[in-house]
Amino acid sequence: MDFDLQKLLRPHIASLKPYSSARDEYSGKEGVFLDANENPLGSITEQDFNRYPDPYQTVLKEKLSKIKKVSKERIFLGNGSDEAIDLLFRAFCQPGLDNVIILPPTYGMYEVSAGINDIAVKKVPLSPDFQLLPHKVLEEVDAHTKIIFICSPNNPSGNTLKRESILQVARDFQGLVVIDEAYIDFSVEPGFLNMLEQFPNLLVIQTLSKAWGLAALRLGMAFASPDIVAILNKIKPPYNISGLTQKTVTEALENSDKLEQMIREILTQKETLRKQLEKIPQVDTVYPSQANFFLVKVPRAKKVYQRLIEKKIIVRDRSAVQHCDDCLRITVGNQLENIQLVQALQDVLAEPFISEGVN
Ligand SMILES: *Cc1c(COP(=O)(O)O)cnc(C)c1O
């Protein structure tokens, strides 16, 4: 593979002089700190937040490094994975000139982030059984294609994409390949963290928003070569991960027993939910899932979605999305929530409008 990161980078980013924060210029812990215009007295809250946090999240990364078995030079932390995605556009994609490839049906933020950054999006749909078609993807690549976004396990279909197909794209594409593993903690299949050393063009994105149960803290992780991580660090807002998030997550990482326990419980609930959904006669398909949700095909999904909302059960209507006609995406809830969902869905699907086709 012939991969040249510097050639991929936008020229003005290569020559950019980054902001140097007070904490960049002196990072010692002891001293009289009169360099950042902070409040020396404390905070208006009971707990003190008056000092700026570590811009490079060193302590947190050391812990993550052990858990993920990836060296800390290969870890970038963002305010949610969405920040890492946005920074990739800003670092590598020239507005009005470059393009990226996405594989519908897929996570919506890639296209939104491309739009915000005025970057063209080429769409290469997955096959109807939601698999990556490596030849079709590679055919779409042109001289201005900078990033290919692959989501596995895929949102909204829930399946993993075949490993060999992903690797083929990573091998034959000279730009960046992003594998979004937001749901990897629920999957029985291995992710791609162990491929980073072999593929300097690979980024693996993970998040604490799903299995870890920390969506409100906003912590996304991008794992990549030290050179890519250095570029993202260069252009990120200096204090993108709050002190509260760094501290809370650093402590939470001690608690991996609870993580395992919650994942086991969700996977148990998931299997029960699958069986219950499959028992409803009007349910057409419950697609195979390696995530914490199911894509479910039902008659007249849009109407079913609205009727469920009237019953205060909120699922995601994906019926307008490629290959997802009449599909709802349903998150695995707790035991009670799943019982309520199944009951409501059963009731709605038994209503006359489903079989009679009246609005
Ligand atoms: C939920 C989700 C994310 C999470 O994004 P955060 O900004 O980290 O909360 C990322 N990618 C996919 C595919 C998701 O479904």
Automatic annotation (TrEMBL):
Matches recorded under InterPro entries: Aminotrans_II_pyridoxalP_BS, Aminotransferase_I/II_large, HisP_aminotrans, PyrdxlP-dep_Trfase, PyrdxlP-dep_Trfase_major, PyrdxlP-dep_Trfase_small
Cofactor(s) named in the record: pyridoxal 5'-phosphate
Catalytic activities: L-histidinol phosphate + 2-oxoglutarate = 3-(imidazol-4-yl)-2-oxopropyl phosphate + L-glutamate
Coiled coil spans: 249-279
Domain Aminotransferase class I/classII large: 46-344
Modified residues (N6-(pyridoxal phosphate)lysine): 210
PROSITE patterns in the cross-refs: AA_TRANSFER_CLASS_2
EC numbers for this chain: 2.6.1.9
Key words, A-Z: Amino-acid biosynthesis, Aminotransferase, Coiled coil, Histidine biosynthesis, Pyridoxal phosphate, Transferase
Keyword Transferase: yes
Superkingdom per UniProt: Bacteria
Family: Belongs to the class-II pyridoxal-phosphate-dependent aminotransferase family. Histidinol-phosphate aminotransferase subfamily.
Known partners and oligomeric status: Homodimer.
Protein name as catalogued: Histidinol-phosphate aminotransferase
Lineage: Bacteria, Pseudomonadati, Bacteroidota, Cytophagia, Cytophagales
The encoding gene: hisC
